[in-house]
Amino acid sequence: MLLLRALLRRRRPPLPAHVPAAGFFTSSGCDALAPPPPPLPGPPPAAEGPRDEPGQEGSLARRVERAASVCAAMRGWMADGRAVHRGHVFHAVNRLRRHRRHRTALQVMEWIMRERPYKLSELDYSYLLEFTAKVHGISEAESLFLRVPQEYQKELLYNNLVIAALDLGLIKHSYAYMRKMRELSLPISPYVYNRLIILHSSPGRRKTISKILSQMKADRVTPHTSTYNILLKIQANEHNIDGVARVFNDMKRANIEPNEITYGILAIAHAVARLYTVCQTYVEAIENSMTGTNWSTLEILLILYGYLGKEKELKRTWEIMQGLPHIRSKSFILAIEAFGKVGSTEQAEKIWVNINSTKKLSLTEQFNSILSVYCRHGIVDKASAVFKQMRASGCQPNAITYRHLALGCLKSGLVKEALNTMDMGKKEVVTKKVRSSTPWLETTHMLLENFAEIGDLENAKRVYGELSESKYCRNSFVYNTLLKAYVKAKVYEPDLLRTMILRGAMPDAETYSLLRLIEQFKI
Fold this sequence. Notes:
Mean pLDDT: 86
Number of helices: 29
Largest sheet: none
Strand content: under 5%
Low-confidence stretches: 1-49, 51-57
Structural class: mainly alpha
Helix content: 55-70%
């Protein structure tokens, strides 16, 4: 804290901008910190020289990633008669950040400071500050800040210092820097407030978000589209459709233009809540707002077309993705699951055979994806074969694996085996993150549906008890499924409506129809 006060109250003589700083800028020799989430990008730099293309094999970024050292990569680049331009460096650094190679990114910026291949800008020092904080901690970053030439100690550098502190969870430090920025009349970036909102997004701290937004307004900082996307995602994770609608209305009133991410969050939130008509509206908005072939948007469309049962559109999207220079492992998993949802098991199997023959299967999620397809359709023999392959490959099944297998047994009428498989799954560690994940919730709900169909009220209650630990039960269809189990079992129970409301779900027309049927079994 003393160092923080020194930063805010006194100034050391800055390094002259024309003097190489080899002896001052820290080396990358100490142990790296655990990688925090990558920061949102700052303002784009002015173009200077050529810029590497992401897929270019001979780019500086690729050389840095593959070389034994940054110095060797730079020497090799210049030995080929190429100059090191700002565009090359910024592309390399952004790529390294995306891959969480913070130490290598720091070494790149230290080389730039040492060799000065072009005139330095505020953004160069900003990158140096960011990766110094990530590798060496906030104290080193503060010390570095004091040595940066005065003409570069402006808005961008201060904002990056605040974000560096927030990345390390040092909220008090960040507030102190923000006070200093207000004193200097420097504008605070909306990305700073984004970080604060994320840090306060846990249930116990969420009440602070309204204060953060009020302070944002007081500082005359206009919320960015990403600010509303974060707020939407918080509500969507809570399965609070009313909250999602409220945030989106606030966004429209503020005249903030939604982007593909906004519509993706809205569409998936409504798809999970089984509000497919509304979901379709937002899917059309994504399609209309798409710019180019962004792989993240295409992945969202894979998920959504799976929910909506749009096999034709799903095939078209997957064909587009296959034409990209690189397809992520996650994309294969999403495609398999989506084709399983639309009932195209053959297409899902083709993708599975493809990754089985061309890629090393090392992730439990890869096996779970094809298991979800087979078990959803009750193809137990093929699911069993995949499970054996999974064991043989050294991948350990998790709680979601056993959920899929239990569902497959139920779909095939093997109730006893399904219950035994569920008991096996209980031996696995089920974290809160897993219990709130969509695969866990939706597979568990399908188990509930199958127990309801056969009138097994005892096990339906047991499964519902697991679901009730999450906010997923806010969706009325979840409780309605439990009511169907009462109807099928011909059992009456009082206060079902009251229990539903207390759990946060709003009854709908189906609820009242089921309750009327249950009333008939009253003795």
